[in-house]
Amino acid sequence: MPQAPRIELHPVSQRVQVHVDGKLLADSTNALELRERGYPPRHYFPREDVRMDLLNTSETTTHCPFKGSTVYFSLGDNKDIAWSYEQPIEGMEAIVGRVAFIGEGSAVQVV
């Protein structure tokens, strides 16, 4: 039996929103859900559905061998609450420029 892929992308047909400290930061009916083995599912929002005017680019960067290099964003005292793959690796082009947010247990609420 073949092993499931490490990463799967699924379009999300329902509305997905991100609220941070009561502010609506993202609202989309065009998000992608990224499922990666060993991690909780994440929603990747098109930039036009994210209040980028409220986010500041962080100095933090990371690299995932399965997705590529990231740029992080902060909102006031909420550091590195979102990230984006500006140049994802081959096979992950669908998430280029999309924005994902950290999950539960923080100031971020995905509804």
Automatic annotation (TrEMBL):
Residues 16-102 form the DUF427 domain. Gene3D superfamilies: Domain of unknown function (DUF427) (2.170.150.40). Signal peptide: none annotated. PANTHER family: CONSERVED PROTEIN, DUF427 DOMAIN PROTEIN (AFU_ORTHOLOGUE AFUA_3G02220). This is DUF427 domain-containing protein.
